[in-house]
Amino acid sequence: MTSHLRVLDGRSQRARHLVPGAGEHSKGVADIVLGWGFLVRDAVVQVTETSAELTDLLAGAVPGVFRGRSIVAVRLHLLDGTYELFRAHYGRRDTFVGKDGSDLKATVGVMDSTLALLKEPGVTHLAASFDTVIESFRNDMFPGYKSSAGVDPDLLAQFPVVERALEALGVVVWRNIEFEADDAIGTAAVRWVEDVEQVVICTPDKDMAQVVLGERIVLYNRREQKILDEDAVREKFGVGPESIPDYLALVGDTADGIPGIPGWGARSTAAVLARYGRIEMIPLDASEWDVTVRGADRLASALAENLDAVYLYRELATLRLDVPVSEELADLEWKGVERGRLEAFCDEVGLDPDRFRI
To answer: Cys-Cys with 258: which of 13, 177, 253, 332 at CB 3.0–4.6 Å?
Structure first.
């Protein structure tokens, strides 16, 4: 995106980014687009032409999107495996050493926590997504984006091990190389939201909030035992899910290496975006703002001076919803631990299989 984007062009372009291309999964996209207000929530800008274009676009690109679909009484859980691995590595105090002397503490931690999740009521369908390679296509876009530099080698070495470990527990695992774990989770959430009662994304990551949809797609912070639905996202960030990429572009996201724009803090960003919704809708002259924000002149100047950067940051923060996920929903149903496979894995790495029972 460039600094000369007009409002309607920008909105139309972001709508098109949500619509999968040929051969890509389209389920749930319309609900996300409609929920993000491209058609009905904006009374500030006349969008009749854009709305018509989007309607045609969705009708052509998302077959059956305007037809009702049956909803299965299933809660689909999507696990942020990368977060779980980091949390186990830095949060556990015990030690587990493999046959070859390698550190397996984080692997055991993720296995334990995943089995605990599977014991919770209503957890029947589960997939775990990992950053098999921490670097992704976003590193080609921005050199400062998060990478494996500085990550504990003992932690990095466990990524392929923990992926195999969860598969040994009977859990579907998505290994991400070009894309990120969050992209695969977002893709799956949007793909299956119309097929299940609820999609529960197990992560505390801020960027995942952009796909939250009412109470149909929610975030579950397992450590704090908190659910974030759309109302909770608005309460926490001061903006709706549709504005989360814009919010992160302005405020920054240290976890992903997104620096943000100087002077734009959480409070000021929430106030401005709550009024304007999108970066390209924010007037670059503070005298045109009809929302009161402290330091408005300074904020407007910083935005004007960093337009190219902020559009890049927003693109970095925007989830890709076109990750190739080959499984069908039925494939994600957990059918229990395959003891033979688990025992073979544990024997290979040097763990006690009797520890992992449910």
So the answer is: 253
